[in-house]
Structure formats: C-alpha cells, structure tokens
C-alpha cells in the first residue's frame, strides 16, 4: 500500500514515483508525487481521467504533453494542467532525466493504479511499451474505471474486452495481480426498484401486457 516516502519503480517505462502526499494524508482530496522519467521515457499510452484533474510542474528536464489535439513543450519552471475528461499523454523529450511534481485531484485509487501497473511490468505481464497484455488490460480497465479510460469510445472498448475480462477471471489473473481484493463499487450500487402498483392497476396490466412498459430492468452481461 502506498504511503508517504514510498519510492515505486516501473522497470519497463522507466517511471520512478516518489510519493509525497497520499490519499490517506489528504482525506482523499489529492495525491502528490514526484515522477522521474529517463530520456525517451513516456507514460504507456494515451488516456483520460473522467473526474480527476492533473497538474504537472516540471522541476527538471524537457517534457512534451499531448492534451487533446494540442502539443505542449514544458521545461523547468513550467506547469501544465490537464482538466478532467481530457485525453493526454506525455514523454521526456530532453537529453537529461526529467523530474515532475504531479498533483491529482481527487486522489481516488490512483496510488493503487500505479502499484498495479508496476507489478504487472515486474511479472512480465506487459508489452515492451509498458501496456498490460490483453487479459490483464481488460481486468485493469474495469477495476480502475473511475480513474482511467480509453480516449476513444470507452463504452465500445468495454464491450469488446468483456470476453477477455471473463477469461482473465477464469484464469485467476484478477487475484494474482491484486485486482480482486478491492470492492467493485459498480457491482454494489443499488438497483432502482419500481414502486409496486395498486392491485387494480396490476390486474389491468396483466390482461394487456406491454413488453415496453417503463420500469422493466434489463440485465446486461459484461
């Protein structure tokens, strides 16, 4: 579990995290860490944080950010803010190791996300670019749906990867990589219940059933 002072390494992407403030320290308000990237180092893949804002303060080096359709080059002393819901990616385009102070608001489960990605890389369950392999990626995207999503058609991606997520669970990969021990909030949200109709109304409906009447719930499989 992440804590203040923890140093976390991703052996494939070259990312090194120095945790300064965790969700526990800030009551979930923010996560603050410093990130080191070697020359040529980059975050694995473009992504979107649906409800989190990220602020990047470049302490050393030269970074290039992609925010939506814009490219921004930032050097020591520059800051880049990525609003929630904005597709982005970044890389070290300089000749020296870059160091960036990153602040994420709210924290949510970002600490656990970084720990999981690093663990997958150490176990050889990612590609050379640091992206998880298909079965783990399908599980990963479901576990951290509140923190990160695909920048393109996330709903379609979820449907397409459903068979992979099922197969990953069958093989026990969700347990092996720590993706099963966090509560799945989507599974515990209460399902709205249609108010019980009066007896006379129920009798009328039973004689004229309508498959499209409001209040029916359709169970959708992942």
How is this fold's topology laid out?
Elements: E1 7-9, E2 16-21, E3 31-37, E4 53-60, E5 62-67, E6 70-75, E7 79-82, E8 88-92, E9 98-105, H1 110-122, H2 134-143, H3 154-160, H4 162-170, H5 173-176, H6 185-188, H7 199-207
Q: What characteristics describe this protein?
A:
222 residues, alpha+beta, Jelly Rolls, 2 domains, six-stranded antiparallel sheet, three-stranded antiparallel sheet, 7 helices, globular, disordered C terminus
What does this structure look like?
- With about 220 residues, this protein is α+β, with helices and mostly antiparallel strands.
- It has two domains: about 5-110, Jelly Rolls (Sandwich), CATH 2.60.120; about 115-185, no CATH class.
- Helices cover about 25% and strands about 25% of the residues.
- The chain has seven helices and nine strands.
- It has helices spanning about 110-120, 135-145, 155-160, 160-170, 175, 185-190, 200-205, and strands at about 5-10, 15-20, 30-35, 55-60, 60-65, 70-75, 80, 90, 100-105.
- The strands form two sheets. A six-stranded antiparallel β-sheet has the order 1-2-3-9-4-7, with helices on one face.
- Helix 2 crosses helix 4 (about 160-170).
- The longest helix has 13 residues, at about 110-120.
Which CATH architecture of the largest domain is right? Sandwich
Largest sheet: 6 strands, antiparallel
Classify the secondary structure makeup into a structural class. alpha+beta
> What is the end-to-end distance?
29 Å
> What kind of assembly state do the chains in view correspond to?
single chain
Q: What is the element string, with H for helices and E for strands?
A: EEEEEEEEEHHHHHHH
CATH class descriptor of the largest domain: Mainly Beta
Quantity of strands, as a count: 9
Indicate the CATH topology of the largest domain: Jelly Rolls
Mean pLDDT: 82
Biggest sheet: strand arrangement: 1-2-3-9-4-7
């Amino acid at each position: 579990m992440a804590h203040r002072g923890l140093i976390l390494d991703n052996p494939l992407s070259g990312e090194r995290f120095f945790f300064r403030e965790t969700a526990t320290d800030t009551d979930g308000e923010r996560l603050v860490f410093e990130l080191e990237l070697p020359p040529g180092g980059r975050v694995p893949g473009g992504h979107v944080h649906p409800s989190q804002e990220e602020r990047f303060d470049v302490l050393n080096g030269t970074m290039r950010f992609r925010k939506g359709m814009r490219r921004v080059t930032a050097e020591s002393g520059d800051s880049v803010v990525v609003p929630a819901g904005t597709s982005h990616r970044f890389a070290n385009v300089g000749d020296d190791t870059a160091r960036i102070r990153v602040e994420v608001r709210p924290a949510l489960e970002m600490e656990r996300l970084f720990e999981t990605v690093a663990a997958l890389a150490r176990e050889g369950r990612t590609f050379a670019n640091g992206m998880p392999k298909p079965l783990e990626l399908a599980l990963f995207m479901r576990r951290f749906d509140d923190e990160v999503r695909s920048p393109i058609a996330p709903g379609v991606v979820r449907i397409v990867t459903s068979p992979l997520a099922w197969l990953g669970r069958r093989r026990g990969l969700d347990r092996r990589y720590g993706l099963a021990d966090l509560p799945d909030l989507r599974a515990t949200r209460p399902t709205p219940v249609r108010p019980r109709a009066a007896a006379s109304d129920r009798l009328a409906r039973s004689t004229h059933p309508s498959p499209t009447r409001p209040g029916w719930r359709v169970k959708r499989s992942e």
